[in-house]
């Protein structure tokens, strides 16, 4: 590889990093900017001096930031586990059941429609449904919403992996007397761990950042961090410093989670990409 190619690749990587990281750098700098500089026309990209007043404000012991953080952790963890479990079983069933061709297409299109239809169209009906069952402002209401949004994604992501899974291994297990559930749990799941881990990582990201459904059914007690950010938009103006600090708090756990799970994500997204 000659020097020009290396320089070209390095330049492209540097540009990509700048494009990807610039918003987060600006966000973090704004979280350290004094409040009076947001209204100053002459303020630059870098704050004149660093202050942690915005972080002190959002982490005030008299506030509810820790409760919102706990809500997000509970909802994201529970939603991810349920969505991956249900989605994996559904994808495995679709990959193994001998359905008529048209029926398979109909089921696949149904999952696709559920995944991509505008969520605002069901926000009000879902609110009324949760109110009917007395589940408004509960973790369960948000978890059900997040599961309904992420299960179709998990099904579509894992369906191709299960279709490419060697059926000879399952046929050998059938000879040994394994039923469908035992084959799925003891044979398929252990060998599909990278794909399941990738699905879990992406599902967790989706649940952690979801705003619309959480704001619809959980305005107070079960409020999550993304919903809390909207509270900084007041009738007296936008609290840019506090909003930036809270946004940074949301980004940091996701960034750390992505850092520690990147190898599982990379392996999971490439499972079955190369066939022997």
Classify the secondary structure makeup into a structural class.
mainly alpha
Give the N-to-C terminal Cα separation.
Answer: 29 Å
Strand-residue proportion: under 5%
Tally of extended strands?
Answer: 2
**What is the radius of gyration computed over CA atoms, rounded to a whole number of angstroms?**
23 Å
What is the CATH architecture term of the largest domain?
Answer: Orthogonal Bundle
Tertiary shape: globular
Largest sheet: 2 strands, antiparallel
Number of domain modules: 2
Estimated helix fraction: over 70%
The averaged pLDDT comes out at 84
Low-confidence stretches are none
Number of helices: 12
String of helices and strands: HHHHHHHHHHHEEH
- What is the CATH class of the largest domain? Mainly Alpha
Strand order of the largest sheet: 1-2
CATH superfamily of the largest domain: MetI-like
CATH topology of the largest domain: MetI-like fold
Task: Give the SSE layout.
Blueprint: H1 3-31, H2 53-58, H3 65-96, H4 101-116, H5 120-132, H6 139-164, H7 167-175, H8 180-191, H9 193-209, H10 212-217, H11 225-230, E1 233-234, E2 237-238, H12 240-270
Antiparallel strand pairs: 1-2
Helix pairs in contact: 1-12, 3-6, 3-9, 4-6, 6-9, 7-8, 9-12
């Amino acid at each position: 590889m000659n020097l020009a190619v290396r320089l070209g690749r390095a330049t492209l990587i540097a540009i990509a990093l700048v494009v990807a990281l610039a918003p987060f750098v600006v966000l973090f700098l704004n979280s350290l900017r004094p409040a009076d500089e947001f209204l100053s026309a002459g303020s630059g990209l870098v704050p004149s001096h660093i202050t942690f007043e915005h972080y002190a404000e959002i982490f005030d012991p008299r506030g509810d930031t820790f409760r919102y953080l706990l809500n997000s952790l509970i909802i994201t963890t529970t939603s991810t586990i349920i969505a991956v479990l249900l989605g994996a079983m559904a994808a495995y069933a679709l990959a193994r059941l001998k359905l008529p061709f048209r029926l398979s297409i109909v089921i696949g299109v149904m999952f696709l429609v559920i995944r991509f239809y505008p969520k605002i169209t069901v926000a009000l009906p879902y609110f009324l449904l949760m109110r009917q069952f007395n589940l408004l402002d509960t973790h369960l209401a948000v978890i059900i919403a997040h599961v309904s949004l992420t299960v179709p994604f998990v099904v579509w992501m894992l369906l191709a992996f299960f279709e490419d899974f060697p059926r000879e291994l399952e046929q050998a297990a059938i000879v040994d007397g394994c039923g469908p559930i035992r084959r799925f749990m003891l044979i398929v799941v252990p060998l599909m761990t990278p794909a399941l881990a990738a699905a879990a990582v992406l599902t967790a990201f989706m649940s952690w950042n979801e705003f619309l459904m959480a704001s619809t059914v959980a305005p107070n007690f079960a409020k999550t961090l993304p919903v809390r950010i909207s509270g900084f938009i007041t009738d007296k103006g936008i609290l840019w410093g506090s909003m930036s600090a809270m946004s940074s708090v949301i980004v940091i756990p996701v960034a750390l989670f992505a850092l520690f799970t990147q190898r599982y994500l990379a392996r999971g997204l490439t499972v079955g990409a190369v066939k022997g």
